[in-house]
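step 4 of 6: structure.
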Amino acid sequence: MPDYETFEHDVLVIGAGGAGLRAAIEASAAGVRVGLVCKSLLGKAHTVMAEGGIAAALANVDERDNWKVHFADTMRGGQYVNQWRMAELHAKEAPDRVRELEAWGAVFDRTKDGRILQRHFGGHKYPRLAHVGDRTGLEMIRTLQDYGVHQGIDVYMEHTILCLLKDGDRVIGAFGYERERGRFKIFRAKAVVLATGGIGRAYKITSNSWEYTGDGHALAYDAGTELTDMEFVQFHPTGMVWPPGVMGILVTEGVRGDGGILTNKEGKRFMFDAIPENYRAQTADNEEEGWRYCQGDKDARRPPELLTRDHVSRCIVREIKEGRGSPHGGVFLDISWIKQKMPNAAEYIKRKLPSMYHQFKQLADIDITEQPMEVGPTTHYIMGGVRVDPDTQMTRLPGLFAAGECAAGINGANRLGGNSLSDLLVFGKRAGEFAAKFAKENSLGKIRKDQVDIVAREALEPFERNDGENPYAIQKDLQEAMQNLVGIVRNEGEMHEALERIGNFKTRAEKAAITGNREYNPGWHTALDLKNLLTVSEAITRAALERQESRGAQFREDYPYKVDAFGKVNTIISKASDGSMLVRLEPLPAMPDYLKQVMEENG
Amino acid sequence: MKTATFKIWRGDAKGGEFHEYPTDVAEGMVVLDAVNQVQAMQAGDLACRWNCKAGKCGSCSAEVNGMPRLMCMTRLSELPLEKPITIEPMKAFPVIKDLVTDLSWNFRVKKKIKPFKPRPPDAPDGTWRMQQEDIDRVQEFRKCIECFLCQDVCHVLRDHQLHEKFIGPRFLIHVAALEMHPLDTEDRIEELRNAQGIGYCNITKCCTKVCPESIQITDNGIIPLKERVVDDFYDPFGWVWKRLKKLLNR
């Protein structure tokens, strides 16, 4: 039996994006020893890609904003299947979390009176997103990183966790490998926080990098706790569609917040055509009003381009399907038109959207101050994830916590732009706080060496197979299947086909073979990541089948309308004792009266 | 479909050599696409780092036809595809494997730089007031994506390997962002002159040329810092005044 290098911490945080870093900082501040595991180098996690901003009701730009409006916006955007308690905590605590970043060195754009500037974004009633041009995520992760490295946290860069370790029901650590030499390592901990982000690599067209293979979702599921809301995958309406190499790369919603419009090949602003009933009262019904809104006119209502992401994505798909798309299969997103409205438009665009300007100039030869962009939906985010207690972020397994994208509850059926960065901060902090508390009240558990050995042996099997299949090919086939069969528009027949294919992919993944040795071998890493990708793909499909209605990000062409009964339940995924995946519906917790009143007041 | 040949350096700390990989190229492809394609179809164990694929994370730094570049932002259409395209790891850092280098020195250097230390809040609610024009410069420096291409191309590090005496352009810019932060009260000038070795920079501006974020590293960052060091060291009145101001701020 081999020996593994073993590390001990009070709290182990898996994932070093916004949520993981914030959790590690909080736990460390509580006086416990913290280990932070990153799949890539520190500071490269997906948070760095976030562009638009952090949603927080600071009321710096519009004094009418407060937590109640933010709460109501979040619930409406999530089609009321959010966990109300998480939405409440999020709306109340986000402003403090943003101000804290400033105290740690973040440099947000300013209002004229020197306070943090806020911008408009889809689904938010007032300008609410604290931002730095269109590189807010970079500012956030760098601030947390530069603050965090001085807090005595042990950082393990380029390490991947393969499984959680348990002592009875309690989670007592994790087992994984380091990329550089391929050596296995045991991390013992009194509490573990999952902050691993999303699942975008399950789809072909995605804004997510290679890392986002649903690790935290699968680790939690395999350890025996529950996932929820997995059917709700956010397809961001505006990803690049041309050239093919860059397909899926994100184009920030900030383009629309700053006045960008969506048009079809006939030059028509098609978003005016289908404004949903529950947003009609707060949406502009003419182009002039929409422009006034983007310019800060407080009496104007927002343009329909700033409706929620699920809706905008579906409208874009409709235009493309009905033959009114752009030459490369998208629609047009045009910010250059504002030169009709202001004298120094090009300068304005470059200042507000510098990285979009750069991205299109360099990757597509498009000058966005002169020409429209071509955009289409891209897999961006999963609302579903590990089921957690709203206050403590603890899962049903003692000692296991989750925060950020890999946890679920705050977003319901659709996430509003900007609510992710604030979610990472609010619930990252809470997870760190309560994980530290749990660690102080508990001791280290007993590692079962035989459990670890089995995982290690399985992980090395791809090296031993001589004539197995290329893991990259299996990953590619899975991505195509999910894209085509469990994408923006879904139906029962295609999803049954997807389940059958996922079953085949599992068989193929068990025979994946790789070349080379254990040192920094991406082929091996791809083979190991397949297991998690398959788990989350199956969970998404089963949950989507169970929800026989269309709501938020889930659109079923065989059930194209909302069904009241489904508005009162969440889907829950768990692992049966025989290893098969179970899905069930569970009623939402009842919203207390004071919040019902908040909803009514902000209807 | 067109094909092109990529000569990719394969090896580790003990040594290595170029391997040629012919692969299909499609319109709009970037170098990273070609590397990922080679990885998926011909060399599964080819090591390279990448994340965002949009020039925002700074992971895929390498030397393409001898030029330090982000592979994700280098389009094939700007390269002479009739000849093989060479791709090598950055030279200023030890190789781990293939295109992956050991960047740990950078993280150690940064940790030694005195962190941000703000003045007390300006408003009773614990917030500060800053004017946009006073933070424009700091925001320019904070655009840095830590790709370390400036470190790679800096001859003090690349050729003279003075990693123990000089922190390199990336971290001079980091110090500049802290020193010019309107709220910061810390003093980093003494370290700049000694431990961080700002004097080693002789302003050849190679760092500025390769910066994918177009940060004016030399003109806006390093030169003003050099001036501060000089002022601090040779101007005793300035020295006293600055200390006094810092004390008052506290």
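step 5 of 6: annotate
 - Chain A touches chain B through 66 residues (CB under 8 Å).
 - The longest strand of chain A covers residues 184-194.
step 6 of 6: archive
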